[in-house]
Write a structure and sequence with these properties.
- The complex is a heterodimer of chains A (82) and B (404).
- With 82 residues, chain A is mostly helical.
- Chain A has one domain (3-78): ACP-like (Non-ribosomal Peptide Synthetase Peptidyl Carrier Protein, Chain A).
- Chain A is 56% helix and 0% strand.
- Chain B is α/β, with parallel strands linked by helices and 404 residues long.
- Chain B has helices at 19-27, 62-66, 70-85, 107-120, 129-133, 137-146, 161-174, 192-200, 211-214, 239-244, 273-286, 304-317, 328-331, 338-352, and strands at 4-12, 34-35, 48-49, 96-101, 151-153, 180-187, 230-238, 251-260, 295-297, 323-325, 354-355, 371-372, 378-379, 384-391, 395-403.
- In chain B, the strands form three sheets. Chain B has an eleven-stranded mixed beta sheet with strand order 5-4-6-7-1-8-15-14-9-10-12, with helices on both faces. A two-stranded antiparallel ribbon of chain B has the order 2-3.
- In chain B, a hairpin with a 3-residue loop joins strand 14 (384-391) and strand 15.
- The radius of gyration of chain B is 20 Å and the shape is globular.
- The two termini of chain B are 17 Å apart.
- The chains are: A mainly alpha (82), B alpha/beta (404).
- At the A-B interface, helix 2 of A face helix 2 of B.
Chain lengths: 82, 404
């Protein structure tokens, strides 16, 4: 799965969970500060991403995923398709 | 004495998605009871319910709706209508309160997430499970939407919850804790488990082949209530505050009574003593005599024992002159929302001089002996009316409204 494909997949999850427009999702965007994803929605995003990308994202790791780019990079590195 | 006025109304019920359509359907004697078509209902003894006429998703944003239990969704729909209907009062947030009760709370979330945990494990349980299932959820949802900071409260007294919320809202104004209080009740628990539980209590009508005839309060052939879902919300205001902003006034909430039976966890006291005390307390609070009461919107759910006990209480505390109706014959039983929706029907009856009929009252039970509106809406000039609500646990609430 390419970086673009992961970002597109993540944008789909963000739209479903939080109603964020895919056009507003880009690597430098912070989940909390820019996209207004609250901590409960972030849990939903993580669980949905684990399912979609067949990856494990431990709770301890979630706090390091500040931006969309952080999440894409993590999934790229740890995902089954990597 | 501080006067409390009703300045806004909102509802979503089995009869309509707002107050206007619900009230029109009540006056026309329509039924909101429908067959349950879902496969899960096939093996239940009860396969009818009073489901919403309009889905909450028709007015709520998708993302907003997915974070709310259905009971919170209906509360929000009704509260937005009531708030807009009141003209969106400009009030200091610290003088705005919310009191919205529910009987059961977020049962659909609790049961649905339990299924997910059984099937897929704890990691798949939604992080929104707790805020969606907590019984203060409808009140908190509306409090957030309106920015209410004087206080957000959620009375839980089974089927009296909605009426109790109206009563507590008036107290918040009279004790000077708020100028405007958004009050009401919300319920949405049409699901196999509550249906099975109520069925095991022998509380539900099993007239599955005739949904429109199943809810028949005071009728000889009544065999239980019909489970319904929906919400009702009223905006209460301190009179000076409402008058200063030139608010349109529906009615005055002039008296409330709240008592407990201490008799049985689910059965009503057959002597109706606690219910009669609540009505008398409300009349005393309103400084009205029984003869002043022209209309009673009864709790009457269509259960054999409940309706009879209430009739005793009404005859005892008010007499046989008042024109009585049970709008549950049309809406089914909205549990924690019932008192709020029926408070709305009570004050609209005063405003319009029209009492909705008790649908399906073909043959009044010999024990009832009340003056009940039947067949069609009755035109009558009303100065004051009472709304009764009772709940499992022995909760009794009576509200008294007078003309604006």
């Amino acid at each position: 799965m390419t970086t673009d494909e992961i970002q597109t997949g993540l944008a789909e999850i963000l739209e479903e969970v939080a109603g964020i427009l895919p056009a507003d999702v880009s690597p430098e965007k912070s989940f909390t500060d820019d996209l207004d994803v609250d901590s409960l929605s972030m849990v939903e995003v993580v669980v949905a991403a684990e399912e979609k990308f067949d990856v494990k994202i431990p709770d301890d790791e979630v706090k390091n995923l500040r931006t969309v780019g952080d999440a894409v990079a993590y999934i790229e590195k740890h995902g089954a398709a990597a | 004495m501080t006067e409390v006025l009703v300045t806004g109304l909102g509802a979503t019920t089995p009869l309509g998605g707002d107050v206007a359509s619900t009230w029109a359907a009540m006056l026309a004697g329509e039924s909101g009871v429908r067959p349950l078509e879902a496969t899960w209902a096939e093996h239940l003894p009860v396969r009818i319910a009073a489901t919403l006429a309009v889905e909450p998703s028709a007015t709520l944003e998708r993302v907003e709706a997915r974070r709310l239990d259905r009971c919170q969704q209906v509360a929000l729909v009704a509260a937005r209508e009531a708030w807009a209907d009141a003209g969106s009062p400009e009030v200091d947030p610290e003088r705005l309160a919310v009191v919205i009760g529910t009987g059961i709370g977020g049962a659909l979330t609790l049961l649905g997430q339990d299924d997910i945990m059984e099937e897929k494990g704890h990691r798949r349980v939604s992080p929104l499970t707790i805020p969606m299932l907590m019984p203060n959820g409808p009140a908190a949802t509306v409090g957030l939407a309106l920015g209410a900071k004087a206080g957000v409260h959620a009375p839980v007294s089974a089927c009296a919850s909605g009426a109790e919320a109206v009563a507590w809202g008036r107290e918040l104004i009279r004790t000077d804790r708020a100028d405007v209080v958004v009050v009401g009740g919300a319920e949405a628990c049409i699901h196999p488990l509550p249906l099975a539980g109520f069925s095991q209590m022998q509380a539900l009508s099993t007239r599955n082949d005739e949904p429109g005839a199943a809810s028949r309060p005071f009728d000889k052939a009544r065999d239980g209530f019909v489970l319904g879902e929906g919400a009702g919300v009223l905006v209460l205001e301190r009179a000076e505050f409402a008058e200063a902003r030139g608010a349109r006034i529906y009615a005055r909430l002039v008296g409330t009574g709240m008592t407990a039976d201490a008799y049985h966890i689910a059965a009503p006291d057959p002597a109706g003593a606690g219910a009669a005390r609540a009505i008398r307390q409300a009349l005393a609070d309103a400084q009205l005599e029984p003869a002043d009461i022209g209309h009673v919107n009864a709790h009457a759910t269509s259960t054999p024992v409940g309706d009879t006990a209430e009739a005793v209480a009404i005859r005892d505390a008010i007499g046989e002159h008042a024109l009585v109706t049970s709008t549950k014959s049309m809406t089914g039983h909205l549990l924690g929302a019932a008192g709020a929706v029926e408070a709305i029907a009570t004050l609209l009856a005063i405003r319009d001089g029209k009492v909705p009929p008790t649908r399906n009252l073909d043959d009044p039970d010999d024990d009832i002996r009340l003056n009940i509106a039947r067949v069609q809406a009755q035109e009558v000039t009303l100065q004051a009316a009472v709304n009764d609500s009772f709940g499992f646990g022995g909760h009794n609430v009576a509200l008294v409204f007078t003309a604006a």
